[in-house]
């Protein structure tokens, strides 16, 4: 073992031999049938489940399909999300109570906890993994932290008029230590460039104004090219092509949004639940029992698929051949699977009461589904739809695998 | 620390507290400025460089941009490739001498080595990580091994006529413990389904015959949908749409291949070096100083880009905004960067003599490039093209990051 991060080299260099001997001597039982010593496991098949009621996380392993134990003391985890360090050993947890927590997966320890705002709603990690940003409702703005020490490196108030601060939503990382986010109260989208922070230069801000009323959430396409904000105050969405020579805001999908909907909306769908499969995006039709299909070249709607309820998450299996959908109350005991070639529902599952989230293994062979009111996680084979495992967790909501560390747009 | 793989639970459960105390007491030096103990590092930012002349591997860390040390005794590593376990802690190395080696990254140990054939040319790991397959020239066929023990679980001779065995190329994994591969001498493509192996059932074979003369390499598109084999004995390529209700072989790109080329070919390009960026594939034009652009919906050529030499690897940055190209002799000291929106060369770099391979960090901020004859790896910022690190390695060739464990088609 060679230290690869954080610890003084002389310390681990001396220890590695000792650790090795200890593990070898203690573990050389007849039950160990391995061809050689394998004492340190990798982090590539780990993940965390948010247990919202108890303020805890469950460590999981997707190879063994097991929960490995709890990390406690995370505070209010309703609507919590998290991002991972580049090496997959650490998670940064954004609690609704404004706390940013750093946990260490292999040891299941809470390493640090910073009360960084009064009310927070998620965050992001920079492309190079060095900066962690939290988006805050109260006081409105983003704060940026050193990912190793959690020292605050920047405080960017979302002050859009003298004395007026907006709630911030839709935060995502962009290449080069930049973050993009939307100002709900201001109807603006900002990009903060923190590439000068290490050299002592303040963040540079680029502001897009009049993007539309009340952007309430946003997503970035898997290639990082398009940033799309949903509008609560009017129909349509605001889109920026970040690869354009001079990026500007365009309005797309004029019929999409809250304004003209006939049905009551039981839960606003997450825009990050959009699926992009091949050249098409699959997205929840707000208030309707439909999934919309949109061409990502023209950004025009090209089809609708009738589903069992109001869709919340519409998620593509990593290969894009299937799209899985969960639903708002009262249909939130069901999950439906769309075949993207035929655009037909090929399966309806009932994995438990209050299905809140789904996460695919990185190569797509399984999906993990949380059923909050049944205190259960189901692991399902995406080819046969056979249940591979049922695991007990306390009011599970979000499920996050370390493979997210390797992907952009979170 | 909780054991997540391979070791008896009772053993590690007892050890974890001891290890923790040991590490804490030994490492609590004033130099440790971390907010908490972080003794076990993740494997998400590790990788391996093949040192072909010395039969060794160099462990690397992409966060620190450092080489961490050598793993020796791998035998003949010319044209070697490797795949990773799901957790990222182990690599399976396919040597040209027919040996399959299993190495453990955190401890930099060679754990096991199986002489499985006389001449091998790469391999793959099943979607679920349980089976490792090697493709062999001599004797021609594939052999499949348990990824934990390296016990042989299947031997599939590529016998296409009585007593006639073909060399095997273009092996890739398909969903559900299946592998696809091409038979150079037979002009066939086979799919082996090993999903019954654990229950004692033999592999099931599906054979596509008369696919074209001498398929010499193949690739699978990033979504796993299309398998494409290059033909050495004639022009064009053989493509199978694996998502079709009844997959069959189609011929595409009639002008692509060896037959009609006017220029001598200094090195046959790797088909796995094809880049798919958005809906277009960028591929080396064989024998010409050009990169071809192909629409992956129609599989028609839609453009050509003049480059500095005969392209070998044509690789997309993970976001698809750039395509990087290296070249065959005598132009193999150069690397060119294509902007995929304008299809223009935006940069020409000289990272050393005999550039053999390139590997992007999973979020694309850096690329690692091996220059064999300068015994050097360069780490380059893909936005500014600034050299972030120069690292000494012995005749480096292939570079493989553990993030490959999360992706299909290897």
Report on the architecture of this protein:
- Two copies of one chain form a homodimer.
- Chain A is mostly beta strands and 410 residues long.
- In chain A, 5% of the residues lie in helices and 48% in strands.
- The first copy, chain A, is built from one helix and 34 strands.
- The first copy, chain A, has one helix at 9-27; strands at residues 46-51, 56-61, 66-71, 81-84, 90-94, 99-104, 109-115, 119-125, 131-138, 140-146, 152-157, 159-161, 164-165, 168-174, 178-183, 188-193, 204-208, 215-220, 226-231, 235-241, 249-257, 275-277, 280-284, 290-295, 301-306, 311-316, 322-327, 335-339, 344-349, 355-360, 366-371, 376-381, 387-392, 396-401.
- In chain A, the strands form nine sheets. In chain A, strands 3-2-1-34 form a four-stranded antiparallel β-sheet, with no helix packed on it.
- The model of chain A is unreliable at 1-37 (pLDDT under 50).
The proportion of residues forming helix of chain A, as a percent range, comes to: under 10%
Strand content of chain A: over 45%
Structural class by sheet pairing and helices of chain A: mainly beta
Q: How would a crystallographer describe the biggest sheet of chain A? A: 4 strands, antiparallel
- What is the number of E strands of chain A? 34
Largest interface: A-B, 92 and 91 residues
Shape of chain A: globular
Oligomer: homodimer
Number of helices of chain A: 1
Cα-atom radius of gyration of chain A: 22 Å
Low-pLDDT residue intervals, each spanning 5 or more residues of chain A: 1-37
Strand order of the largest sheet of chain A: 3-2-1-34
The overall average pLDDT of chain A, rounded, is 88
Distance between the termini of chain A: 31 Å
